[in-house]
Amino acid sequence: MEPQVAVAQPAYAAYAPQALAVAAPVVQKVVAPYAQQAVAVAAPVVQKVLAPEPYDPNPQYQFSYGVQDAHTGDVKSQVESRSGDVVKGQYSLIEADGTRRVVDYVADPVNGFNAVVRREGAVQKVAVAAAPALVASPHY
User: Fold this and answer.
1) Is 48 exposed, middle or buried (CB count within 10 Å of its CB: 0-12, 13-18, 19+)?
2) What is the pLDDT of residues 51-70, one digit of tens each?
3) How many domains would you assign to the chain?
4) How far is CA 13 from the centre of its chain?
5) Of the candidates 92, 102, 94, which has an alpha carbon nearest to the alpha carbon of residue 73?
6) d(CA 83, CA 81)
7) pTM of the model
């Protein structure tokens, strides 16, 4: 007679969800303790006071400015004046090619806006700066 070998197999626990008892909430009706009453408010009386705007039959002004930024290379200026309905002025700037553009202008009710554009100086070769090289940040 040969000996019998018994091997125990693992048994898995069976899962069964527990039943949940849910009851509907109890509804209680309560009368609101406060009732808002409408309050009559009269609209304010608005009176328009029309003050005449000041009118200058001969407006006049003058202004001028200039920029000379050595860091960016930005060089420009403007001068303008007005006497009545006639505006006169001039502005100038340095173009990308190194020349100076000058614009003289006049605006009036008879002829409208008129501008005369001229360029001064010879075209200069502008050195183009190389864009900075991008370097990836180290990953830590």
Assistant:
1) exposed
2) 888 889 999 999 999 999 98
3) 1
4) 64
5) 94
6) 7
7) 0.52
